[in-house]
Amino acid sequence: MSAQLKTLIDRFCAFNSSIQRKHMRSALLTAAWNSDNWTFDALVAHYKTLVKYLHLKDQGTVLGKGCGTPAMTQGSGYVEQAYELGKRLKG
Fold it and tell me: In this structure, are residues 31 and 24 in contact, taking their beta carbons and an 8 Å threshold?
């Protein structure tokens, strides 16, 4: 998780009650160069904790392992998964 994303998440604490009242939806889309099975374990655990804490409705995840360059990402299948997730969010 980048420091910038961590700062944003930390700032949720000041607004958590107003966020919870809105019954918002959430999705996790992420990419990493590393393609090991454990690459996103910590991030997914943190995401699930935030979803639970803020009472968000999880809409799904796309975990783009091995997506270090645009070419790697295009050939991975994750682009299609992200597109399908986006279509489900639209409604």
Answer: no
Q: Tens place of pLDDT for every residue, the chain, 91 residues?
A: 778 877 877 777 777 777 777 888 999 999 999 999 999 999 999 899 889 988 899 999 999 999 999 999 999 999 999 999 999 887 6
11, 18 contact by CB (below 8 A): no
- 25-32 and 57-65 beta bridge pairing: parallel
Using DSSP's 3-state secondary structure scheme, residue 61 falls into strand
Q: How many CB atoms lie within 10 A of CB 81?
A: 16
Q: The pTM is what?
A: 0.79
Cα torsion 52, 3, 11, 45 to 10°: value is: 10
